[in-house]
Design brief:
single chain; mainly alpha; two-stranded antiparallel sheet; globular
């Protein structure tokens, strides 16, 4: 209850950022033994990189297929290495799933999460709830 109350006292942007931290940690744990989705290299320093950028596509921040392990080079220095990322998505999830994600990027681009949704997300992605 104390943590939930502290969470609710944060600004909206800070609450979303708190959930992002938990979600991205979950993604890194989920993909810890997998290579970079874009270049296929293994790295000790992986990011949870979004195919559809979280800053632009708020409705896709917490969509699991949209976020995968990515090396620093691809995520930061190559701006997400998007063309190779898409190929990696197709290899990992299949063409139909990627097309569904692309459709979702149009229909759900912007989203303002309710406090209840943010709390549900934080509870869903807190480790050790890894699927």
């Amino acid at each position: 209850e104390k943590k939930e109350r502290r969470f609710q006292l944060l600004s909206y942007a800070a609450r979303v950022q708190e959930v992002r931290k938990v979600f991205q940690k979950w993604i890194r744990e989920r993909d810890k033994d997998k290579p970079c989705i874009s270049c296929g290299h293994f790295s000790d320093n992986i990011h949870a990189g979004h195919f559809y950028k979280a800053e632009i596509y708020s409705g896709l921040i917490f969509v699991e297929i949209n976020c995968n392990s990515q090396c620093v080079k691809c995520n930061v220095y190559l701006g997400g290495n998007e063309s190779q990322y898409r190929i990696g998505l197709v290899n990992k999830y299949g063409e139909d799933a990627v097309k569904n994600l692309e459709e979702l990027s149009v229909t759900s681009r912007i989203k303002k999460y309710s406090d209840e949704e943010l709390i549900q997300l934080i509870n869903k992605y807190k480790l050790p709830n890894l699927k």
